[in-house]
Specification:
There is one protein chain. It is built from three helices and two strands; from the N terminus they run αβαβα. By secondary structure, it is mainly alpha-helical. The longest helix is centred in the C-terminal third of the chain and has 15 residues, at 71-85.
Length: 87
Amino acid sequence: MDNLRGTEDGEGDVTEVVGHLEKIHAQGTGVIGMKIMGEGAFSTPEQRDASVRFVMQLGTVDAVTIGYKSTAEIDEAIARTNTHLNS
């Protein structure tokens, strides 16, 4: 599942994926969130914010990887992550 709405290959099942993440995390295995900015597909700040908020509030993701095209994107990702980690 690439995003909350799925992909062109089909809809993602958020409940199923979150359930798997909870089990994996409970076993003590680290979970890495990848492409949480939608691999560039989240074009609005609201979409990127919703994704970061969702991942940070799960409590099961230990680290994330985010790709950047500019230093402005790095600053934005840091600000969004800090906002949701501290809420």
